[in-house]
Design brief:
This protein is mostly helical and 63 residues long. The chain has three helices and two strands. It has a two-stranded antiparallel ribbon with strand order 1-2. Helix 1 crosses helix 3.
Length: 63
């Protein structure tokens, strides 16, 4: 399983990242948001990317 830092790094480099709708409403007051696989709509309940992009991005960027 990947660490939260890995999820953040992957999401920052993922062209398919798209924040979950419910995540937009949970941003802090300044509008800042943490980009992470866990906040992406493609990251499903059993902790994997339904587009299978996590492993290729980790391998290409040596996270």
């Amino acid at each position: 399983m990947s660490t939260e830092q890995t999820y953040k790094n992957v999401a920052e480099h993922c062209s398919a990242y798209h924040a979950k709708e419910s995540y937009y409403s949970s941003q802090n007051k300044s509008g800042d948001s943490d980009v992470s696989c866990t906040t992406c709509k493609h990251f499903v309940n059993d902790n994997h990317c339904e587009l299978d992009l996590l492993d290729p991005i980790v391998e290409n960027h040596n996270f």
